[in-house]
Write a structure and sequence with these properties.
Shape: rod-shaped
Oligomer: single chain
Order of helices and strands: EEEEEEEEHEHEEEEEEEE
InterPro entries: Carb-bd-like_fold, Plug_dom, Plug_dom_sf
Domain TonB-dependent receptor plug: 168-263
GO molecular function: carbohydrate binding
Helix content: under 10%
Pfam families: Plug
CATH class of the largest domain: Mainly Beta
Strand order of the largest sheet: 9-16-17-14-15
CATH superfamily of the largest domain: TonB-dependent receptor, plug domain
Strand content: 25-35%
Organism: Gemmatimonas aurantiaca
Radius of gyration: 43 Å
CATH topology of the largest domain: Ferric Hydroxamate Uptake Protein, Chain A, domain 1
Distance between the termini: 136 Å
Number of strands: 17
Length: 288
């Protein structure tokens, strides 16, 4: 009882509570080549959804004037070689979530910009960095444009076959104009599959494939061999055998396609092929 000698007074023992506050302060990441700036996350910013030990990263990509760069490809590579790729939005932001804390390498590239990269540290929670990129001067290789010229159907087909590499050999109008030959046979000299020869005073192109069997004449041996003279056509019309090729005026010629044999001859020219073995020289005159 209270006031009694030797008596015990009952009281309540109050225990104080000790509260320990641990504050983790993250210092700024090191800049790489002056391209990256760290931005401290706002106090109390929430951790990314999921594992609280993971981090989220927002990269702001800006140009030299500080304006946001949209549609840039941002690649993030971690210490374990895992890669993540995002494209910046109209505000120049690329957002990455669920990143393991540690060092990452960020790379940025876009057409017209110099590729840049930088090392950054991602901690648990929110992280934000800014990367600055610079314009890249682009040197265009000279391009020769050939277009805007209308061809008749026959010349269009010739140009199509020429560009496709179908003929065994080709002579173009530009080559003829540059050399200015007196006789068209000059443009054929030196081709590997033929030689220019003379047959009874007529200039002809002779195939180097070899001789060809001749029609037996009355009283002659049935299996004679003669020179393999190539047939000639002009604008799709086959000329008589042994036509003088130099009767064609060079300045009137748009192009020549040569077929040494039937194997390379396209279907549209098969109607001209009266001699399968010796080949064909198809001449196309210029449009008037």
């Amino acid at each position: 009882m209270v006031g009694s000698i030797g008596a015990w007074s009952r009281g309540r023992l109050l225990l104080g509570t000790l509260v320990i506050v641990l504050a983790m302060l993250s210092g700024p990441a090191h800049a790489v080549g002056g391209l990256m700036d760290a931005q401290e996350s706002p106090a109390g910013s929430p951790a990314p959804a999921g594992d609280a030990k993971l981090g989220a990263l927002v990269l702001h990509i800006v140009n030299a004037a500080g304006a946001p760069v949209a549609s840039a490809e941002v690649t993030l590579r971690g210490e374990k070689k895992q890669d993540f790729v995002q494209r910046t939005d109209t505000a120049g932001r690329a957002v990455f979530a669920d990143l393991a804390p540690g060092f990452w390498v960020a790379g940025v590239r876009r057409l017209g910009l110099k590729p840049v990269s930088g090392s950054l540290r991602v901690g648990a929670g929110q992280n934000a960095y800014t990367m600055r990129v610079e314009d890249e001067a682009m040197t265009l290789v000279g391009v020769r444009v050939m277009g805007g010229r209308d061809y008749s159907p026959r010349l269009y087909d010739f140009e199509r076959r020429r560009l496709a590499g179908l003929p065994s050999a080709v002579v173009t109008q530009e080559q003829i104009d540059r050399l200015g030959p007196v006789h068209i046979s000059r443009m054929l000299r030196g081709m590997s599959g033929l030689r220019i020869g003379d047959s009874s005073g007529v200039t002809v192109a002779i195939s180097t494939r070899g001789m060809k069997p001749s029609r037996p004449l009355r009283g002659a041996a049935p299996f004679g061999l003669v020179q393999c003279v190539m047939r000639v056509s002009v604008d799709g019309i086959i000329l008589p055998a042994l036509t003088n090729i130099d009767q064609i005026v060079p300045k009137d010629v748009h192009g020549i396609e040569v077929y040494y044999g039937p194997a390379r001859m396209p279907p549209e020219l098969e109607g001209m092929r009266t001699d399968n073995w010796c080949g064909l020289i198809a001449i196309w005159t210029r449009d008037r």
